[in-house]
Structure formats: structure tokens, C-alpha cells
Amino acid sequence: MNRIEKIQYLNQILLEEMPEYQETAAWFPRDEASQRRLLRSLMNVRPPIPASQKFLTVQDALLSEEREERGVVDVETLPAIAKNPRLVLWQGDITTLKADAIVNAANPALRGCFCPLHSCIDNLIHSRSGIQLRLCCDEIMTAQGYDEPPGQAKITPAFHLPSRYILHTVGPVIHGRVTSKDKELLASCYRSCLELALSHDCRTVAFPSISTGVYHYPLMQAAHVALKAITDFLRLHPQLSVTMVCHSPQTLHAYQVVWNMLYQETKPHED
């Protein structure tokens, strides 16, 4: 199969599974880009149910092709920030990073974002990992029996991402002013992920800016909590390196400003 044939086959199978979307799917143009958007939309709304081996084989081939076309960035090639050789601030796409683990800012259900084509990192990670990730998360959460509380972490394989693992954590949702509890929960997200990474022999971990999107944590305040939690942890665990991934120039600038403020205040240990 060529690419458009793979996409068309996957769409056909998903629409047979979910016939309630057939009428909507008919409105999508037939060009490759539009049909690929339809495929992502259907993958986003698909429940965590098993798929046939042929479906997985075709999906895996498509996602592998797309991963190679996007390119892979090895975190060990990225320049470290001034005064801390084990911390990187980088603007880019976390799903392109080759690291031992990347972090997903998840929702409490921990089964991915079900909103078609949503721009959140949870949606992007699930879309590019493949449908196996939702099934894996569903097994974990079904066994747990309740929604994931903020500040904790779970680990899964990364499937079709360049990293080995995905660490899933739920950040605090901000309603009004940031409270001391919000700060502690956000810091706990970073610590819990790093502790879980260490327990799985990870040495390189990449984070997004947790809770600063649809959870409305003010960016500068979140950056302060994140960088302090990370640098405090790195002092105790010299085998770890962390990449802080910023999705926009504005986010990167905020983290750079906060880092400069933190360094002046605390003079982090220079390894």
C-alpha cells in the first residue's frame, strides 16, 4: 500500500467500527491531507478496544513513516542551559525527541484526549503513538479503578514515538488564584515523574510545561515551580538529565527569564 491507501484502509475500518461517524466523514475532501485529518479524528474518538492485526500492521507502517519524515531529535545533542549541564530548555515538538522518557500532561481519565484534532499535548502524543497507547492506559486505569489524582505518575511504553517510555501525569486545574496546594501538586507532578523514571533506569527525561494550557496555570508561576522542582531533584540524582520542552517562543522566553531569576536567587550547584 502507498500512503493514501494506508490512510483510506484505516479510515474504512474505523468507520465500520464506529458507523455513527460515517455521515460526518463523508464531508471530508478526498485529498490525502484531509483524509489524514479524518484518520486522526477517528483515532481520537475511538474507544480502547482491540484491533485486528492487519489494522495494527498498516497503522504501524504509516506512523513509522511519519515519524521518520518529522525527524528525530536526540536530547543528548541539545545544548544545556547556562550553569546547569543537565538541564536543557528547548523549543520544539516533544513527540520528536529521542529520550528515555517523555512526559504527557494527561487528564484524570488517563486514556488520552477524545476531542478530535484538539491541540493539547495529550492528543498529540496519543495520535502519534498509535491506538495501542489508549489500550495500555485503559488496562492501567481499569485495574486502578478510579481517576488519576493530580501530582502522581504512571508509565507506559512509547510505542511509535522515538522515546522508550511515556510518563503520564495530571496537573492541577486553576480556578482563580493559584493556591499553595496548587503549587505543591504541580511540583509533585515533576517529582513523581522523575522518581518513576529513575525506577525504570531512565537517564534522560523530557517535560512539557504542565498545566499551562487548558488547565490555566499562569505560565511564569508554573515555570518557577517546574524549574525549582527539577533542579532540586537533579542535585540529588546526578545520573539524570532533563529537557524542558517549550511549544512556543513565548513559553521558552518565560522559562529562560524564570531560570535567570532562580539562578540569581539560589545559585544552583554547578556540577
Compact description:
This protein has helices at about 5-15, 20-25, 30-45, 55-70, 120-130, 130-145, 180-200, 220-235, 250-265, and strands at about 75, 85-90, 95-100, 100-105, 155, 165-170, 205, 240-245. It is α/β, with parallel strands linked by helices and about 270 residues long.
Detailed description of the structure:
There is one protein chain. With 271 residues, the protein is an alpha/beta fold. It has two domains: 67 residues, no CATH class; 195 residues, Leucine Aminopeptidase, subunit E, domain 1 (3-Layer(aba) Sandwich), CATH 3.40.220.10. It is 48% helix and 12% strand. It has a six-stranded mixed β-sheet, with helices on both faces. The chain has a two-stranded parallel sheet with strand order 1-3. Strand 5 and strand 6 form a beta hairpin. Helix 1 runs parallel beside helix 3 and helix 7 packs across helix 8. The chain is globular and about 60 Å long. 39% of the residues are buried. The mean pLDDT is 96.
